[in-house]
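About this split. The held-out portion is used to measure sequence recovery: a designer receives only the structure tokens and must propose an amino acid at every position. Recovery is the fraction of positions where the proposal matches the reference. Here is one held-out target exactly as it appears in the evaluation file.
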């Protein structure tokens, strides 16, 4: 099936730029990271120490490191990120988020089950099945198992957690707690507002594609074909809202509700990375090349194929600019935006040579699984390399 690659009636071409090699570097992430973790914000390319660290970004950093060979910068970043996330975890399986210098470096909030809980569970679940180092996988599994019984009232938090739980459930079909968490999230997220607004929230807000991806992943993990198809339908509808004239025009920071259009500003790289992740999951499950085109459009957004024709990737620093504005870009290069850039390019490099016949870039990242050519619930891990 071909879903969601252009707005209905637009007639616009969505063929991505096949000349790009989807390159990325880890130097700016390395620059932003101390032995404690990755700083949250930057002024230009300089870390803003006064804003400290957060679990959200360190969990994202752990995900990035899982997709790289365990050497050099990636080896350092992965271990720092895992240590930060585990230090943030409470005995009850909840997580603190803010670690700042207030007299001394310390946690300044209480453990909770908000978005950072979900992202931490996602990072720990993914690391426990896909990190190249067995010691890292073992530590991540210990942390995942401490938190998998928790639930959150927030849909985004449940979606993030479901992605980590689904990775564990697919790798280990006997892990009932992981299956239960993925299923619980999938059921909540697939309860849409109405046929005219087939989304579980009254507005599109942030990281929206993660909600659709979580339903796809939950269906895969639970061998529930209808749930997986529902997630694919949600992702297709979301792309219909955000592909205009052959490029991504993602929801701005103010969100978007029924009857509202775009373009909207500021646009944030995390929206684009969430689309790349969700389309990667959909392609891995179905093998449909339309989803691979979604990944390519996400990568092209960083290259300037966006509403402002502004290049969002700094090839010199290795960072991403923090926001796309109507008249250009926010020139700061914080952790969240740079992690979004790297994640998007990792997905592009792992899929596009396989799915669309583009020349393979120089990279060690290759999908461990060939895509299923039709919907078949399979008990295999959706990862980018085999793990012994």
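Reference sequence for scoring:
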């Amino acid at each position: 099936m071909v879903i969601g690659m252009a707005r209905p009636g637009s007639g616009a071409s969505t063929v991505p730029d096949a000349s790009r090699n989807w390159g990325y570097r880890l130097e700016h992430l390395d620059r932003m990271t101390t032995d404690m973790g990755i700083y949250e914000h930057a002024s230009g390319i300089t870390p803003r120490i006064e804003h400290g660290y957060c679990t959200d970004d360190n969990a994202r950093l752990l995900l990035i490191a899982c997709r790289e060979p365990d050497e050099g910068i990636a080896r350092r970043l992965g271990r720092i990120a895992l240590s930060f996330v585990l230090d943030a975890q409470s005995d009850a399986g909840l997580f603190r988020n803010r670690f700042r210098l207030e007299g001394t470096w310390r946690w300044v909030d209480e453990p909770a089950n908000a978005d950072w809980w979900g992202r931490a569970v996602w990072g720990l679940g993914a690391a426990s099945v896909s990190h190249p180092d067995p010691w890292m996988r073992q530590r991540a599994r210990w942390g995942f198992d401490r938190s998998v019984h928790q639930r959150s009232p927030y849909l985004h938090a449940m979606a993030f957690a479901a992605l980590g739980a689904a990775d564990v459930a697919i790798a280990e079909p006997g892990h009932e707690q992981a299956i239960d968490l993925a299923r619980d999230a999938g059921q909540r997220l697939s309860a849409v507002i109405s046929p005219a607004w087939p989304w579980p929230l009254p507005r599109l807000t942030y990281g929206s594609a993660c909600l659709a991806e979580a339903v796809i992943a939950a269906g895969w993990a639970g061998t529930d074909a209808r749930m997986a198809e529902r997630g694919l339908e949600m992702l297709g509808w979301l792309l219909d809202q955000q592909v205009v004239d052959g490029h991504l025009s993602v929801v701005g920071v103010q969100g978007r509700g029924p009857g509202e259009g775009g373009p909207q500003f500021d646009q944030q790289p995390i929206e684009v990375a969430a689309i790349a992740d969700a389309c990667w999951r959909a392609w891995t499950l179905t093998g449909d090349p339309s989803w691979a085109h979604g990944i390519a459009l996400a990568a092209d957004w960083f290259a300037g194929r966006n509403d402002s024709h502004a290049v969002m990737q700094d090839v010199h620093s290795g960072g991403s600019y923090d926001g796309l504005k109507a008249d250009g870009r926010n020139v700061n290069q914080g952790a969240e935006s740079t992690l979004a850039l790297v994640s998007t390019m990792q997905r592009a490099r792992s899929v596009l040579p396989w799915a669309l016949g583009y020349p393979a870039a120089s990279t060690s990242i290759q999908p461990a699984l060939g895509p299923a050519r039709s919907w078949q619930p399979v008990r295999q891990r959706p990862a980018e390399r085999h793990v012994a």
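Annotator remark: The longest strand covers residues 98-102.
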